[in-house]
Amino acid sequence: MKFGIIGAMDVEVASIKEKMNIKETRNIAGQDYCDGSIGDNEVVVVKCGVGKVRAGLAVQVLKSIFNVDAIINTGVAGSLNNDINIGDIVVSTDAVYHDVDATNFGYQLGEVPQMGKCFFEADAKLRDYAKDAIKNSASDINYFDGRIASGDQFICTKDKKEWIKDTFKADCCEMEGCAIAQASYVNGLPFVILRAISDKADESVSESYDVFEGKAAKHCADVVYYMINHIK
Question: Which of 48, 92, 110, 169 can pair with 58 through a Cys bridge, CB separation 3.0 to 4.6 Å?
């Protein structure tokens, strides 16, 4: 199989690129796509940049130009679930937008008009591979199956955090996952999102994010590398 691996920031993909065999790097729409291999599998790794548009664009390029078979999104997120702590990893069950509101036209909160669905489900096999990778490469890290909530907002207040958690029953929040999920869905690509928790998505974020972001991102990337290296 050929996998597209997406991270929003350098820290989320740097360790993967360091260990993969890169054959070619192409800049497309301002994003560098590193085409190569990990173990027996072909991969294309890209730092997409922050936000939903750039994330969705990366999926389309990976499908249309590199013809990948599946998408893996690695990165960090803020926890919405009190049981999920800094350093833990969330393996996506599905993803939803927390900043989409077309309820005036009869849609669910979070539902993109004319999509026919509000929640985009992750691939069961990829989820299993991800959890096996965590067990075997990072057994000291706790992991949770959970819903990813995405929006073009950095969540840093308790009120907003509680609203997203209560409204969407989500476990963590960030800025790219659901766009990747939606773009994968319309292209018929299986996907999974892995999120290492870097903060609690509340007023404490200013103290915790800078401290834990790099470590959390590297843990998640190392899991993805192990995962790809062991998919047969």
Answer: 48
